[in-house]
Design goal:
With 103 residues, the chain is of the alpha+beta class. The protein contains three helices and three strands; from the N terminus they run H-H-H-E-E-E. Helices cover 29% and strands 23% of the residues. A three-stranded antiparallel beta sheet has the order 1-2-3. Strand 1 and strand 2 form a beta hairpin. It is globular and about 40 Å long. 11% of the residues are buried.
């Protein structure tokens, strides 16, 4: 259960599409809209894993959003080339960070 909680933190949005422009958006720590989106994404982790493991014809690109912490700074990254090994997501970073320098 604890592992699922960690995995769920990683998943904010599953993207089934192509490239996206890099845009930095600052969000307050307790933003109700963001909290609702995170809760929905966590609830849909099993749906995402199922689609990832058995994609349909038009499902070509999968990404997850991960929170990387460095001290007090938190930055969220899109993670591409996602795979799931049965216990955890495996992926490569899709973008460079602005705040978390060592990410």
């Amino acid at each position: 259960m604890r592992r699922w909680a960690a995995v769920a933190v990683l998943v904010v949005v599953a993207v089934l599409g192509c490239s996206r422009p890099r845009t930095v958006i600052m969000v307050e720590d307790k933003d109700p809209e963001m909290d609702a989106a995170i809760a929905q994404a966590r609830a849909e982790v099993p749906v995402f894993v199922k689609a990832l493991q058995a994609p349909e014809a038009n499902d070509r690109f999968f990404s997850v959003k991960a929170a990387i912490r460095e001290g007090e700074d938190v930055e969220h990254f899109w993670i591409d080339d996602v795979a799931y090994d049965g216990t955890a997501f495996i992926a490569g970073a899709a973008e460079q960070g602005d705040e978390a320098e060592d990410a």
